[in-house]
Known about the structure:
By secondary structure, chain A is an all-beta fold. Helices cover 0% and strands 50% of the residues of chain A. The mean pLDDT of chain A is 96.
Amino acid sequence: xxxxxxxxxxxxxxxxxxxxxxxxxxxxxxxxxxxxxxxxxxxxxxxxxxxxxxxxxxxxxxxxxxxxxxxxxxxxxxxxxxxxxxxxxxxxxxxxxxxxxxxxxxxx
Amino acid sequence: xxxxxxxxxxxxxxxxxxxxxxxxxxxxxxxxxxxxxxxxxxxxxxxxxxxxxxxxxxxxxxxxxxxxxxxxxxxxxxxxxxxxxxxxxxxxxxxxxxxxxxxxxxxxxxxxxxxxx
Lengths: 108, 117
């Protein structure tokens, strides 16, 4: 099984700050890594696919990087509407596509 | 614009079968992969499985013995059946479209299924 370790589990930042979330895979997954945003009470929304590709319509303040086992997700210029839980997800060894534990982002 | 909507009972008795349907509009289920994902209240996401090209399926190893995903192309729907449920199966169940096998780019709003007597 591929385990995805996401950190931190929660963070609090100010509007305008840069936020960084990391995701580590237990084995090499190439670039088969996606990032999702889940606002309270809503379905997840795809933000980044294949580690670094911005999904159409997603603001450019969201970005992703990494390959192999170590991945990073950034939000630059944090906005109030970015309050959400963010999840990484690997799909290198479907049928066991696994999600990270999530990072809850709050505004100070 | 592709839209997905889950439907089915919100309450299932222990040891019974959970059955959900996802109705897709704005696109044909003959293309892409179609997934089920669940989320226990207050917890993280768990991928259940998917169906593609109408008949081919893949399931999470941890649920494989209890899960069946099928498709009805005439109704443009796909369905989830989970047998022998326990309270641990209580969760929000989401259906989603996946491209490339694992990129969930369109999601339903989710439906809460509670397993309780």
